[in-house]
Amino acid sequence: MKSALVTGSARGIGRAICEELARSGVARRIVVCDVKKEWCDETLAALRAIDGVEAESLAMDVSDEASVVSAVAEAAKIFGSLDIVVNNAGITRDGLLARMTAENWDAVLDVNLRGAFLVTREASKLMMRARSGSIVNIASVVGLMGNAGQANYSASKGGLIALTKTVARELGSRGVRVNAVAPGFINSKMTENLPDAVKQQMLSIVPLRKFGEVQDVAKAVAFLASDNAAYVTGQVLSVNGGMLMP
Fold first, then answer.
1. Which residues are part of the catalytic machinery?
2. Cβ contacts of residue 93 below 8 Å, gap of 6+?
3. Residue-wise pLDDT tens digits, 5-51
4. SS3 at position 23
5. What is the mean pLDDT of residues 81-101?
6. In what order do the strands lie in the sheet with 133-138?
7. Does pLDDT of 54 surpass 80?
8. In terms of DSSP bridges, do strands 176-183 and 84-87 run parallel, antiparallel, or are they unpaired?
9. What angle do CA 63, 67, 68 make, to 5 degrees?
10. Looking at residue 78, what DSSP letter applies?
11. Residue 245: exposure state from Cβ atoms within 10 A (0-12, 13-18, ≥19)
12. Global pTM?
């Protein structure tokens, strides 16, 4: 049975990813990670209710190097291997560039990009030794097209896409695949507080004329993490309802 670690998985897209990996059988051993261990309780309970699934939770602050090093090592120790890693942890601190503080810029880049780098670095050491593994990074449509008011978030997700492609080239000869999923507008806690005018503006440029659900992203992640994508690496799978067609 394969084991998976998913960061930022206490709720929303992260929780949906954990549940989809488990239900689909892609990974039957799941390590749920978030900044505080107690935040993971509901996800943990949902996973343990799925027949044949083993699940544990860990506290991990992806922006803190010591926390990442410790948590990744512990995750591998819990189930004896680390086959799949999903870098999902992310935050927003939106604002127009002219008024954006350096603190808000740093906070977003530290979690969204530096965090993925730290987790990938530690996990890749284990996967290279095993000569097997799959890493999936959760990017964003704005990392491909930009978005006014999200210079920090867009930069972090664009950087994550570049990181994905570079690490895929570095690790491919060791049997480790690295891909990204770039969601568009997804109904989640991160987006529910946006003004209605912003939501309607975004909906107008989505050909499917609806917003995505967390399960749409989770299913894409499960595919890329699975053996069905054994010959797929360095790719960005857009889940955006046609909002952007590169």
1. 153
2. 100, 104, 105, 107, 108, 152, 153
3. 999 999 999 999 999 999 999 999 999 999 999 999 999 999 999 99
4. helix
5. 97
6. 54-59, 29-34, 3-6, 84-87, 133-138, 176-183, 236-239
7. yes
8. unpaired
9. 70
10. H
11. exposed
12. 0.96
